[in-house]
Amino acid sequence: MSTLSANGYLMKKLGNPKIRHCFREGNQFAHALAQQGTKEDVTKFDSLAT
C-alpha cells in the first residue's frame, strides 16, 4: 500500500477531519525536525517505509 493510499484510508477511518496548513515558521518544532532531517542519512529509515 502506498503512503498516499494509507493516508487516505486513515483519513476515512477518522471521519475525514479537516486538514489545515501550518507554515514551517509557525511551527518551530516541525521546522527544527525538518531541518534535522535534511542532515540525516535516510537510508537507515528505508525499512520503516516498506
Descriptive notes:
Helices cover 50% and strands 0% of the residues. It contains three helices and no strands. The chain has helices spanning 3-13, 28-37, 46-49. The protein is flat.
Please outline what is shown here.
The chain is an all-alpha fold and 50 residues long. It is 50% helix and 0% strand. The N and C termini lie close together (9 Å).
Fill in the keyword field for this structure.
50 residues; mainly alpha; 3 helices; 50% helix
State the helix count.
3
How would a crystallographer describe the biggest sheet? none
User: Which value, in Å, is the CA radius of gyration?
Assistant: 14 Å
> Roughly how many Å apart are the termini?
9 Å
The coarse overall form would be: flat
Name the average pLDDT: 80
- Amount of helix: 40-55%
The total of beta strands comes to 0
List low-pLDDT spans. none
Q: Provide the β-strand percentage band.
A: under 5%
Which assembly state applies to the chains in this document? single chain
- Helix-and-strand structural type: mainly alpha
Order of helices and strands: HHH
Element layout with pairings:
Blueprint: H1 3-13, H2 28-37, H3 46-49
